[in-house]
Design brief:
Chain lengths: 409, 310
């Protein structure tokens, strides 16, 4: 009873914002808990998009043939998926938002995917690239906006290994969807060349002690070591290499490109020298766009004078907003499927600061592929140099040649 | 009477606040709080790792759906059964007591989490994805029915000879044994009943959420909330855990929506204040004088004192 009365009074005051001449976009963010460091930058990027759109007089809504302002309705899920479940539902049932946007990562996106399918409401999934979200056939109610599905990430890594004529590859991966999919993709490529990884080992995602593992990898005498983990795993693995003074000629980890400040702080710039990672924006600077700001303009406007503090997640949040903008600009009606039709219309044609936006029938992102970058020592730090593109169009971004074998730091 | 009132209030829930995910989660917490009520309130064993049974119920029902394609009702039954099996496996922990028991159950729940999270056959790596077997409304109705049936069980535990045995064990296990109570068997039955309730709660949660990763079902805050809700409402009562879950979880939702930036601060302070001034739970205010907090007895005495005229 108390819940009903309290919440109904509250929802009345909040849902007022969803009516009138605005398009309401609902989202969740986590300002505490394990996902806060990733969720908040993403949320800031989405807020920036709302500010930009409203400053320009709103976004064009095709079915209404006019511009509408955007209202962002947001709640704090505290990194808790159970809380996120009720709050996503709050956005749809009480605030009656036009579309909703998932919080960071697969764990907090999972409840939103269920609700989107169940209530047939369009979800813009920013970074929840879990395979299970997109493996049950065509799904018109979920659209992944900012990261390709995990299995296609290593495509340029495969190309780079091939170009360097590397045949002895060690693969260490964490046992989660994101990392395992990448490891399996590389293994599949090697199999197609009648090769087997010299080391192929999965470890729990909670793994932080790599002492025996590093020795075992060393014993397999690899030409390249690929470690697929989450930031904590990457940091622990790289620190193990540093503390044992272990050198490999080629080391790739996924997250230094996304969180360079964190890795500089926790691993050290020197230890990261000559290693490889994925070149996410703003390392890759796409300025030729047909919607929104190019990367350089985004950096200048998002954090004037503090451009080095901008990270990929800021870009991802903004890019989700651009996907929403494109969907409404090409929507065939104001129904959820009508808005989704707008996304289908721009798929493969939309160029944003993350590259080509392209969805498959299941709603998975298959564009926005990430090139490979090498961290080249520069003074006391390092610079990211893009050394291998994921697509022909990305060849323009290549600004370095891979240094192999990597010199000892 | 309490059964009818609780059932009626929960049935009216959607007409007052049409967020069925919230209401269904609320009923799930009522089930968990009642599980804690049985195992802690009536036997004195505080199970910090109670979430392990919840997780077992979630994975038992989910894996039955994925591998055997069972329907929703069978999944709920199998969820409860999985939790009972887990409870049988860890039942030797009942030899421990106090903090040792609490910590041992915590360790057991974490061990179960690591197994589930790291095995491919449990989809620990890729995450679980289930078909939607019930509409949100049907699932809520089902969860309200589960709450009412649970209350029947708690009424039985409170009023029966079995419940009397449990309370005797809680007061002094040695004396209870000397009086003819089979301590091991009685405790174990209470333990299994509580696990079954958590299993049902887990199965309902799995059917509601349908897409999740292992870290969510085994999140320790679920244990903490179930314990806090039971304590706040008042253990060893039928209605206490229901009141605790309804009041605190509603406040949780209200503060989370109205003041998200101060969420932890407000909610934390609230719990501290309530525990300080209402150690016996909300229901102690309407209980016998011996159950009430001293400050409440003073207030009541002052109000009911006769006027003294010269």
């Amino acid at each position: 009873m108390a819940s009903g009365l309290a919440a109904s009074a509250l929802s009345a005051s909040l849902s007022a914002g969803a009516s009138g001449n605005v398009i309401s976009v609902g989202t969740l963010y986590a300002n505490t808990g394990s996902f806060a460091t990733s969720s908040m930058p993403e949320y800031a990027g989405l807020q920036f998009w709302v500010k930009q759109v409203n400053a320009a007089g709103g976004m064009y809504v095709a079915p209404l043939k006019k511009k509408e302002h955007v209202k962002l309705v947001s709640y704090n899920d505290q990194s808790d998926p159970a809380t996120a479940t009720t709050l996503y539902n709050q956005l749809l049932t009480q605030n009656k938002v036009n579309v909703f946007v998932a919080d960071f990562g697969s764990v907090l996106t999972a409840p939103a995917v269920t609700i989107a399918k169940d209530q047939k409401h369009l979800l813009f999934d920013i970074t929840g690239s879990g395979t299970s979200f997109f493996s049950s056939g065509p799904n018109p109610y979920v659209a992944l906006t900012s990261l390709p599905v995990s299995a296609v990430w290593p495509k340029p890594v495969v190309g780079l290994l091939s170009s360097l004529k590397i045949k002895r590859v060690a693969i260490l991966y964490c046992q989660n969807d994101f990392d395992q999919a990448q490891a399996a993709a590389i293994k599949g490529f090697l199999s197609s060349k009648h090769l087997q990884p010299v080391y192929f080992q999965g470890v729990p995602t909670t793994q932080t002690d790599y002492s025996t593992i590093v020795q075992a990898i060393k014993g397999s005498n690899p030409q390249a070591v690929l470690e697929f983990g989450y930031p904590n795993n990457d940091i622990a693995f790289l620190n193990q290499l540093k503390s044992t003074n272990t050198h490999f000629n080629f080391v790739l980890t996924p997250f230094p490109g996304q969180l360079p400040t964190l890795f500089r702080q926790d691993v050290g710039a020197k230890a990261l020298g000559w290693q490889y990672t994925y070149a996410v924006p703003p390392i890759m600077r796409v300025n030729k766009v047909n919607l929104g700001l190019g990367l350089n303009s985004f950096l200048a406007k998002f954090a004037p004078g503090k451009q080095s503090t901008v990270n990929f997640l800021n870009v991802a949040g903004y890019n989700a907003g651009l996907a929403i903008q494109a969907a409404f600009a090409h929507a065939t009606s104001m129904s959820q499927l009508g808005i989704r039709a707008g996304l289908t219309a721009v798929s493969g044609k939309l160029q944003t600061l993350e590259g080509t936006f392209a969805l498959n029938k299941a709603g998975a992102q298959v564009g926005e592929l990430l090139p490979v970058a090498q961290m080249v020592p520069h003074g006391a730090g390092f610079q990211f140099k893009i050394v291998y593109p994921a697509t022909n169009a990305q060849k323009a971004f290549v600004n370095g040649t891979p240094k192999y074998p990597a010199p000892k730091a | 009477m309490p059964l009818v009132v609780v059932g009626a209030v929960l049935a009216a829930g959607p007409s007052l606040y049409n967020n069925l995910a919230f209401l269904t989660t609320l009923t799930i917490y009522i089930l968990l709080a009642q599980g804690v009520n049985i195992v802690y309130g009536f036997t004195g064993y505080l199970p910090f790792g109670f979430v392990g049974f919840f997780g077992a119920g979630i994975y038992g029902s989910s894996l039955a759906i994925v591998y055997w394609h069972v329907g929703g009702y069978a999944a709920i039954g199998l969820g409860a059964l999985t939790s009972v099996v887990a409870a049988v496996i860890v039942s030797p922990l009942l030899r421990l007591s106090g903090a040792y028991f609490a910590l041992a159950t915590l360790a057991a729940s974490q061990a179960l989490y690591f197994i589930v999270a790291n095995e491919s056959w449990t989809f620990g790596e890729s995450g679980m994805s289930l078909p939607l077997l019930f509409s949100p409304t049907a699932l809520y109705v089902l969860s309200v029915v589960a709450v009412v049936l649970t209350l029947v069980v708690v009424v039985y535990v409170r009023d029966s000879h079995f419940g009397l045995s449990l309370r005797a064990i809680r007061s002094d296990a040695v004396s209870a044994a000397m009086a003819g109570v089979n301590v091991v068997r009685t405790r174990t039955i209470a333990w299994l009943v509580a696990a079954a309730l958590a299993g049902v709660a887990g199965a309902l949660w799995a059917l509601m959420t349908s897409a999740f990763y292992a870290e969510t079902p085994f999140d320790l805050t679920i244990s903490v909330y179930a314990i806090v809700f039971a304590l706040f409402g008042g253990v060893r009562t039928v209605i206490g855990p229901v009141v605790g879950a309804v009041v605190l979880y509603s406040l949780y939702q209200y503060i989370g929506i109205s003041n998200p930036q101060y969420f932890e601060l407000i909610y934390g302070l609230l719990i501290v204040v309530l525990v300080l001034f209402l150690p016996g739970g909300l229901t102690s205010l309407v209980g016998g004088r011996g159950d009430r907090p001293a400050w409440w007895n003073r207030v009541v005495r002052r109000r009911s004192a006769p006027e003294v005229t010269p």
